[in-house]
Fold this sequence. Notes:
alpha+beta
Amino acid sequence: MRTLRDFVCGHCGTTTEKLVDTDFHNIECPECQGDAVQIMGMPTVRLEGITGSFPGAAEKWARIREDNAKIKARRG
């Protein structure tokens, strides 16, 4: 499986993003041809702009609440 990974060169400090197989941990630096090692990339986090809450969690809570209200309405 191929994934997008970040690499940093130990010689020139260049950071490179490259699509590689999951078992690759080193690549050749495109700038100086030195050894570039894999680093931990920044994860993507999306927060709601006003309150800072996670929109996925808020949407899931609202959907569960709505489903529970429908179930209670059918029962009673």
